[in-house]
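Narrative progress, year one. The postdoctoral researcher (J.K.) led the effort to move from monomer predictions toward full complexes, under supervision of the PI. The following entry was the first complex the group processed end to end, covering 816 residues in total.
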Amino acid sequence: MALIVQKYGGTSVGDIEKIKNVARRVVNTKKAGNDVVVVVSAMGDTTDYLVEMAEKISKTPPKREYDLLLSTGEQISIALLSIAIHELGYDAIAFTGFQVGILTTKEHTEAKILDINTSKIFNELKKGRIVIVAGFQGVTEDGDITTLGRGGSDTTAVALAAALKADLCEIYTDVKGVYTADPRIVKTAKKLDVVNIDEVLELASAGAQVLHPRSVIFAKKYKVPLVVKSSFEDDPGTKITEEYMEGLLVTGIAVKTDEAKVSVIDVPDVPGIAAKLFSLVAREKINVNMIVQGTSRNGLSEISFTIPKKDLITLKGIEDEIKKAVSCSKVTYDEDIAIVSIVGVGMRSHYGVAATVFNVLARLGINIEMISTSEIKISVVVRKDKATEAANALHEEFKLSEVEIKTE
Amino acid sequence: MALIVQKYGGTSVGDIEKIKNVARRVVNTKKAGNDVVVVVSAMGDTTDYLVEMAEKISKTPPKREYDLLLSTGEQISIALLSIAIHELGYDAIAFTGFQVGILTTKEHTEAKILDINTSKIFNELKKGRIVIVAGFQGVTEDGDITTLGRGGSDTTAVALAAALKADLCEIYTDVKGVYTADPRIVKTAKKLDVVNIDEVLELASAGAQVLHPRSVIFAKKYKVPLVVKSSFEDDPGTKITEEYMEGLLVTGIAVKTDEAKVSVIDVPDVPGIAAKLFSLVAREKINVNMIVQGTSRNGLSEISFTIPKKDLITLKGIEDEIKKAVSCSKVTYDEDIAIVSIVGVGMRSHYGVAATVFNVLARLGINIEMISTSEIKISVVVRKDKATEAANALHEEFKLSEVEIKTE
């Protein structure tokens, strides 16, 4: 008998029929003799609907009340799922983050989990019950309801699995698992049966929407055994492992189109300028992704970086402050970019991957505007309308549609 | 400076514009120098929508999960109202029943308030904040979320006013106050400026939908100063008082059409039969309203009583058990009835009110099927399609459209 944590995302519980489907899956896992803890997101568009109502009232709703509002989405879905499981003749009990003691920091809308009180869950499991926990939410020590930000339900599931020392954490989604590329962009993309956790982390950060980076970091830190599966099909999914496959140079390609490029033009090429610039950006809690500093010309240089498009308005608000701090001539913004990344642990021990990438894009006449590399990832910024062509060409070049690795 | 508890019902917060309207009213009360605690119901149809989803999954949803589901309705409206108040530049903080410590019994869907932890509210008031509390909900000592049943938000408001020793509890609704009759039924109905609390209690029980009986009982017990007002118009509303007006025989007329008549035919006229019958009905938690036992004929009698229509299905489920227990020949059900009640503290000291009622109905040829009287109320059961005619005739007979009592 194993203890399994299952997480179902918003599309998996998108309507009443889908909730019933999830109930059947959960009950089958229980029937197979396992203890089951289920983490659920809000139903499909519920969160959007709640956000829309808040925005009709205020452009800047107080974050504490915003969290109080948004957390109802998961409370609705856990209650409905519990009702559906009862209807199948199984005993279940649903808990909000508050009720199950998911203690978080006080940073509303982006709280971090500090602790989980597992005794309540273990007590219910002992009674033979299926335990359902609201994803995405927690509570501060003062009793205020918090939310965990994007991908929060994944984080709840992984954190619960870690706290409960679960044998397995299954992340259910609307695709079969982790793919070599987004099948909507690259038609020949293949599902990976196994993938290394560092690769998943880079892919997630690079825009692959299967798992949220924070949950992957958590899973890596606490060695939570993770599987990504479809809630609609019977497929073993993708197993996420610490091991990696010898001989495989590149595992996946990701395309990110929700970032914008910011260029700070004609900054004096003296020490401390970048520090000043990015301290200001950090103060506004804007996450910077790629950073490139151009070579100096006449003592002046150019710094370009990418940030989430949603943060552009905040950044524009401090443009004057930035200009004053770094003495630049101007700041430009470009929203028509895409970041194409290739990821693979195999790169560590192989030269020439970057060169291959650049060659492929040069052959297609695609201009590379920024380059950034990590030990297992190469990212390039290209025009947004060239991203699909670039991703497909790279997918073919690295023979990703021929990937053939089976779980043991 | 007074401490005022205001309660806004579902129609008062029916949409975003109405929530903004409530926010303005609350802020005006605050601006006038008062401490304000606001109790809010779920927005308009939210509860119906949640109920509908649950019913699509199960005809008998487990009550704990049902409460968990329903309580989200108020959580949404308190969050939105708090956001709207912030938008007006005032500081507000919203609390669920759970967060503010509204401790209840464990009877899910019909829990009773046991205690309210007022220190959290007083702390926030001290900081100058407007405190918003979710109506209709509480929490058990085990941390399970409960709901208080019909009219629960009124009960929350009155209980809070009692616990906080508020100077005033204002119940905002979509009408101007308590009327001599439902203006939809009796066109000449007048708003009462003052009404005695016992009369309100009888009127509420008799079907007047302004205040829920439970909240009135609570207000009476803890001497909470109550006012019923419109959230859409500026009108002093109806003040509910312990005093009563000399010289006024009848204060109001109420019509109730949500009950059905049940007749148990040919029961042996021996002691203990009624006890057996109503013990069975009570076991099913069905609220019996009027009870009439006919005179005996050949040692056989007939017992008729009225119950909420929604409980008919439950009652029919124990029909065989009833037949066996009381040895009756059959049980009949009639949903086409109306209960017309006239209420007035003045009846206590005046004879002939009942006779007047019977005369008026006889003149109109309206058959009286059941009669029940209390010290300050006379209720009659008539055919449902005669209720409006009866109510209007009685309203005129007792000159209720000429009522003229002003608050001092």
